[in-house]
Amino acid sequence: MVKRRKNHRSSENLRAENGSSNPEVSDAKHTNGNSKKEEEEPVLLADQAVEKKWKNWWVRTTWTLIMIGGFFMIIASGHLYVVMFVMLLQNLVFKEVISLSHEPNKERKLPWFRALYWYSLLTTNYFLYGESIIYYFKKSVLVDAFLLPLATYHRFISFMLYCFGFVWFVTNLKKGHYKFQFKQFAWTHMALLLVCFQSHFIINNIFEGMIWFFLPVALVICNDIFAYIFGFFFGRTPLIKLSPKKTVEGFIGGWISTVIFAFMFSIILIKSKYMCCPADNLSTSAFSGAECELNPAFIPVEYKLKPWMFRLLYHLFRTEIRHVYIAPLQLHAFVMASFASLIAPFGGFFASGLKRAFNIKDFGDSIPGHGGITDRMDCQFLMGFFAYIYYQSFIKSVASSSINILQDVINNLSIHDQLDLYMNLQEYFVGQGILPEKVIECTQALLS
């Protein structure tokens, strides 16, 4: 009897440790539920009932136009509002993703469970956006007495904040729930990596120039619209099981349409300096005007057509066209459009697999006809990350300004050396006749 009771208690402890009273039965039920859902035949858009099909069409189209209109208003408001908009979307997506794994905690009632999620988000944002502010607004940050120490020790402060959260998590580990808590720890880091880190690069695109944010977003939206249209009217061949309504016809039609759109739309964008200029001042908007030296990617270049191209265009338009002007951005836009059509959709397929893992249809219902915020942003994060890497690799000018170089040198000097450099510069300018001699006398009087 004693041995049986010990064995019975040990089995109960094992079940408690796994977070389930009967894990084998629950796993079996979960597996059967999934298998039944996977066995259901997907219904393509072209095969849906006419009434339901067109009702979904109008709801989806109406809210698509509303979102596009609101998006243009935010773009015109200025860089600061666009950054705030991206940060808001990031937090909403993080909330939706985290909510998927929060439901099991309601029965466990673990302490500080949700607080750890949001602390991790705040710590990550402090590190990422601090890096961006220090890099893009170095002129303002490194001359401010309050911001300079924060900028100098930014990474150390960020690491210590992370360590505090790590210690917080470990001290809240509760017997019987170890496996569940470590799963949530890994889930939180996955959400931070896929949501926060990628949105960080999207915000960097905004600072580099509004066009590097707007064009990738527009390409994903364009591809989504045309893939839906081609799939709606012509889709017959399923593309991938993770997303049953996606078709090969929609995939290819969306790609061709997006490439054409990118080539033509980029011509319009390069005419706006507000779109092309970097964000030197966050108060800039579409109505305040912007001036800068344009990146060579925005300047059209003359291309001489080959004889066969000349003959083809003559037969088509009955006009002699021997030269064309194409901005390098239009060629870059072709690459971005191809990525937005052929690779970025796999961000959506990844999200579809995630939804199937949790047996949900959408991440939320905040957007009628579209689902949650995550359902609209699943491709945008991957596309924004690609746009940043592509821009830094092939487009951005590598020339550094003399001011940035000088600031890097000065910040590595001690206060005594900085003052000595300052006095030497004054003596140089006085010697060149640029400044009067009284400047040196006033400076010496102030320092004494």
TrEMBL record:
Q: What is its EC number?
A: 2.7.7.41
Stated family: Belongs to the CDS family.
- Pathway as given in its UniProt record: Lipid metabolism; Phospholipid metabolism; CDP-diacylglycerol biosynthesis; CDP-diacylglycerol from sn-glycerol 3-phosphate: step 3/3
- Give the GO molecular function terms: phosphatidate cytidylyltransferase activity
Q: Where in the cell is it found?
A: Membrane
Q: Does the keyword RNA-binding apply?
A: no
Transmembrane feature ranges: 63-94, 115-136, 156-173, 185-203, 209-235, 247-270, 331-351
Protein name per UniProt: Phosphatidate cytidylyltransferase
Phylogenetic classification of the source organism:
Eukaryota, Fungi, Fungi incertae sedis, Zoopagomycota, Entomophthoromycotina
Species whose genome carries this gene? Basidiobolus ranarum
